[in-house]
Amino acid sequence: METQTTAESGFGFLVRLASRPRFLNIETKLFPNGLLAKQTVEICGDTSTGKTLLLSQLMTKCLLPPVVEGLGIRILLLNTDHHFLVSKLFKLMSSILKNNWGKSDAEAEKIIRESLSNLTIINCYDYSQLMVSLHSLDLMLLKEEAVSLMMIDSISSFYWVHRERNGLCTLDHYVKNLLRIIQKHTFQANVPLIYTKSCETGWNVRERINCTTEPTPESINHRITLESNDRGFNCRVETSSEQENFHYRITDDGVHWL
């Protein structure tokens, strides 16, 4: 009987992995070929450049059902900066459903509540809680309700606390150490990762996180850098082989590409 239980559990594990999408078509402007399984995306920018808003906008596309051109997938969010607000996510979803699909308030609310049931939020208020959560990812990513995307806002939240306790290190070195833990689980679960990160001034170029073609430990596959200047906002999208720049603006309805 014990052997049968183990075999069924193993079969269920393989079925869950196979059921996860091979790629996510979430934002063609940023990911023309889609976001592939196991890939890692870094959204980097200074304060007020729209990092959390862009993350919420990508989340909206993923959570809404296919009937309104969403993906209808389950997301796991590690919330460390606490800039992310469910109320803001609700507003973004409501705007899409009402303006693009003509849904009434009642119809929009029903769809949004059903969509939000696919969002799991883990709030981390200090470095210790973050580490406990990261080391528990195998349980969270491989449970019955298969998670198809992991997000972190922000991976750099407790950098200065860690630096005071453990000595001098660059922000990117700190992030690499966290990625080593996180990607061990996301790679095994075939789940892509998107995280936000503050920009480091005066960083050592040798410590910069590599942008690679294939999913690689301690590396990323897409780097999205959000910047602001006197002329507005600029977005730089980098992969291992190319780089593209375009402008954007920020409104109550989200990030709009120009």
Automatic annotation (TrEMBL):
A Gene Ontology term for the protein's cellular component: Rad51B-Rad51C-Rad51D-XRCC2 complex
Gene3D superfamilies: P-loop containing nucleotide triphosphate hydrolases (3.40.50.300)
One GO-annotated biological process of the protein: double-strand break repair via homologous recombination
Gene Ontology MF, one: four-way junction DNA binding
Domain Rad51-like C-terminal per the UniProt entry, residue ranges: 30-197
Name of this protein: X-ray repair cross complementing protein 2
Species this chain originates from: Diachasma alloeum
Lineage, highest ranks first: Eukaryota, Metazoa, Ecdysozoa, Arthropoda, Hexapoda
Gene: XRCC2
